[in-house]
Amino acid sequence: MLVKCVCPGCSHSYLADDQMGDLACPRCGMASEPDAAAPVSDMPPPPAMGPPLMGGPGMDPGMDPGVYDDPFVDDGFQDSAIPMFEAKAPPPMYVTGERMFKGLVFGVVATGGLGFVLGGAFAAVGVIVPGIAAVLMGLVAGASARYGLGGRTTSATMFRTTATVLLVVVIGFAAFFTGGWAVERLTGTRAAQTREDLDNGLRGLVRQRAQVQDTGTGLLLDQRIQETEHLKNLSDPQIEDYLWVQQAQLNQPLLAYGKLRAMSGPIVRLGAERDPINVPFPATPAILLAELILASILAIRGVIAKRRY
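-> structure tokens emitted (309 positions)
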């Protein structure tokens, strides 16, 4: 006899045959107790029958011959004891540790790769438009994580799945800034002006060193002259890194670039020939936070179940 079972682990409703002796959940594999399974129905299904003949037995004389009680038509007054599942989408699944790891790996690879490419592409063409990267990375993070998870999560594992997707989104944004830094340090135009300023400063230091007789001051000037000559010999990307480090007061060029982008913008830049649009300090991190929230919402919507069971 078919019995209705509810899994104690993932709350999945399913039908099983008690004569086979296997009441394990088809989703997570956890066995249900036999006494927890309620029979669907003890009554045999009604026999298939068509409409009664005109004037036949059981026919109401006042009833329209075209209207009859079809047992296979849901008239809205009877409740079926068999649980109804959504036909167009598979039911949500219980996310185990292995599935969560796979979802994290697929999400990081797909979202991180997309973020790096988008950041590099936007930096190469000189375009920065808020919202575009957030929407794309949010959709890709949700789809890739859902593919790694094997489907949408059930309500019992909503927390761990949400944490996994949020981590994927954060890594995607980090890859987005990394791509922008990798391209902007190669296409920056501040190296020539910086070398000219270093030449002027070096000539001034040399003249000052020739006039100084004090030993301590002379050693200090010699050290500054060596540092200036070292900076002059740096490549253009290294000079760009040096300028970012000086502006952000951080020793790591990538972190310095990310801090400047998050704190001071630019917010909008359309084309390399156009001036970037900067806004006051509180607005720049607020816009970045809004993009992060938007991407997180889209990603979470991609992995949660559309219906709760």
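The longest helix spans residues 158-187.
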